[in-house]
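Model the whole thing, not chain by chain.
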Amino acid sequence: MGGLASKLPVTATAMMFGSMSIIGIPLIGGFWSKEIIVGKTWYAYFNGADALLGPAILILATAGMTGFYMSRMWFMTFAGEPKNELVDHVHEETPWVKTPLVILSIITALGGFGLALYGMVDWLSGEADHLSIHKDTFFDQVIYELEHAFLPEDEQVRMIGWTTILLSFIVGPIFAARVYGGSLKEGEKATPIVHWLTSLSGKFGSQNVDELANSQFAEALQNRLYFDDLYEWVLGKTILPFSAFAAWFDANVIDGVVKQIESNSVFGSVQIRRVTTGSARDYILMAAVGALCIFALIWGVSA
Amino acid sequence: MYIRSNLGGERLIQSDPLTFITLTPLAVGLALLILPYLAPASMADFTRKISRSLSMGVALAIFAITTALFLGQIGNIDWLNITQGQYVFQNDSVVLLESIGVRWVVGVDALSFPMVWLTALLIPISMLVEWDAKKGHLFHPLILVMEGALIGVFVVLDLFVFYVFWELTLIPMFFLILVWGGDDRRYASMKFFIYTFTASVLMLIGILVMYFNTGDADLAGSLTGHHFDLVAMTAQAAGGGLIAGEGLRHFVWLLLLIGFATKMPSVPVHTWLPDAHVQAPTAGSMLLAGVMLKMGAYGFLRIAVTIFPESTVVFTPLLIILGMASLVYGAIVCMGQTNLKRMVAYSSVSHMGLIFLGIATMQPLGIAGALFMMFAHGIISPLLFAVAGAFKHHYHTLEIGSMRGIAHHSPWLAGHMMLGWMASLGLPLLAGFVAEIAVMIAFWMTFGWLVIWPALTLIITAVYYLTSMQKMIFEGGDPHVGILPDTMHGEEPRDITWHENAGMFVLGGLTVLFGIMPFIFWDMMSDWSTEFMLETLVQAMNSQGVKP
């Protein structure tokens, strides 16, 4: 793929808003939650929760990485020049795909700020007991929310907030643009909503990362750090052989006991049948032996 | 005299519907089996021609009557308020053998009625699925005989007649396997018959010991002075114990357990089941898994637990061991199977283990869960066996992994397989989930962390169902390329026939219906379990010093 921004305008726009929201670009959907989570984690650390230093650093680093990988995905797909000729045949047709994309894009783009204005942040943090615009005028509410988000009173939180914005909004995307970005092919024109992004992505120069991409580390990452292989190996060495053994055990030991009883009883009845020869001499002999036994028994008892 | 006074079908249905739905299929089925050999040639041909449709007609009529009983069109029963020990549609008992005290007594309650309805439902469906069975003029009447015997087991309240019906179910099933079975059918049918017969003889000894301890003069036979009446036995047991000696009571309980656990079946007396299932025809497997296994659980609750609650409390650890072994071991053995029908058979063993666990919890919720498991498994497992049978019928093999991408060739079959497999592995909103979650919660309430074993088994269940499904109906490496099994020999793959499809649709639909609206039967089951707990088990637990 690559360079699809002009072929799939609606998809590119929707994907742009979605990625922005996940990255936490200020004022768009995901920004409001991410800002608070990062801020509160650091706030807790600064106020004595020492154990939170690790998670706090990780959450900040992750914010930057999100900025990188979401931008990378968008640039690889929609910006730059096409990597094969299949791109020429790509187009959007049915409204069944486009309409939901448009609706969801609008919600993503405006929903976060809208809900914040409506008091969602205060309501969730327990500072307001119902959802409403609780400043005197709408304009006051806008100022209040912006101040709340960008210039909180606590200096440390303000600093962390701006670091997050810097990492996820500036550093991550710029790195992604240097490696994967690029303006569209000559003559291709994207819609104005995304055009600025494709051309901007070509402005940061380019960086070759082939060495890193071919390294063993990259391969390990591609194999999800070999976790799947580990699971497969463990299951293949434990549960699966055990279940095969259990199946064998059931067929040969548990059912084997039943079959043994069966064959023994058949064997026994064959043995007993042998006595029934049909010859009169055998029967007379048996009667004689039996009579002798009875005599011996009576002798023994009476003596 | 009795029959004459009730002559005229409608009056019999109204006054004694249970006798009617038990004896009609037996009589019609036997008549259709025997008539062609007695009648003159021209009439024999005619009988053969209509026997299939007539059997289906009778089966559908029985289903309609049973449904009418449930909905209240006949008898107008409030199923939610049947107290413990009370039976509805109970007839005026008819003396069959005066000298030893055998009577014809029928009645149902919330324990047996769902099973009766299930039987009446599964019989026409299994006939439909095998609508074009060879020797159809014998096949369908035989299933009708089976219906009479199965319903008889669930409705009669006289242990002698109960035992007669119990053994009577073996005969049609024996012939179904022997005549319409697979390559190894002789061995499988003999093993099935002798194995389960041995167990039921032990059960018979238990019943006889109980018989010789009864003493209600009104019901007793003139020669022996004892009777087989279950209701009177239950009353006697509740009012001071049926058998005086505690050791003998435990011994009788164990004899009954052997008989019922073999039928259920529970590990380690389960090995007749896979053989019988693999060789049985589809309809036979459906009835075997759908209803015959439940006879064991039904008999256990109806006789062993009801009459000897103290022994049940004493032997609770044994029930847990048997249930756990069936559940966990059965599931692990499932994973090692390469034959689809064998795998489904072992999964029945695994699911039946939950019934013992549910009873062992000694909680109303657990017992109701066990009852619902009997019912839910009764509609899910026939679907599984219908699917497995369709694979055998259309692809001539049951080997897991011998084919790929069958969903391309048989989309309906693949769809039914997916629904059935999902239902059996306990997907929420399908019938099996309701039973599993009820038993699990009750198990947690009683035994705490031990619940980890049944819960982990659910994962194993998911593994063997999903892998078997993936290895048969989904694609292998290349997209859009299926692999047909070698057994096709160049034959063009087809989808299932309309009658197979219709049967599976009904079962699948009911699985969804009872998953979303379990209360249709759940309410009466849970009321019955609560009553059963309060009336029977709580006293037993108090007397054994177990905290209820």
